[in-house]
């Protein structure tokens, strides 16, 4: 097992998926349609490949936790529904891997909270992501009763954080200092 090779693969694939020139939602409707008809959404194809390769790592997945949490999060925040549905379950698998090794998933949890703050501040994330994140992880957890309550607590924590981060981002352009201060206090 060559850790550096796999690490390079995942980072390169995520960098490809998240590059600005592939963010189709930022284009005009005509340009979006032209690219979609000619090439399709390459982000989805690469995201599916990342997902498939992740599950082929077997017991070596633990080597990528927490290092790949941020890059995977960045990819899942791309506003493409099928990509999100395919890649958010990787988070549950990361939690499960760490839980099976240590009896908890604190490294994963700390890393995703840290990276989520950074990504939402950078303009990524939305209400739809929050709902998908919650429903997918909750559904995955129900299939593993031993970890279910821990995952549900984690999902609740992330949902609350994401709600506050999205509120904070929304009021940063608000003229009212009271609204901004209120959101800042809530976030803290």
UniProtKB/TrEMBL annotation:
It comes from the Eukaryota. GO terms for biological process: cell migration; myoblast fusion; small GTPase-mediated signal transduction. GO terms for molecular function: guanyl-nucleotide exchange factor activity; small GTPase binding. One of its GO terms (cellular component) is plasma membrane. InterPro entries: DOCK, TPR_DOCK. Residues 1-136 form the Dedicator of cytokinesis TPR repeats region domain. It holds the Pfam family TPR_DOCK. This is DOCK2 protein. The lineage of its organism: Eukaryota, Metazoa, Chordata, Craniata, Vertebrata. The gene is Dock2_1.
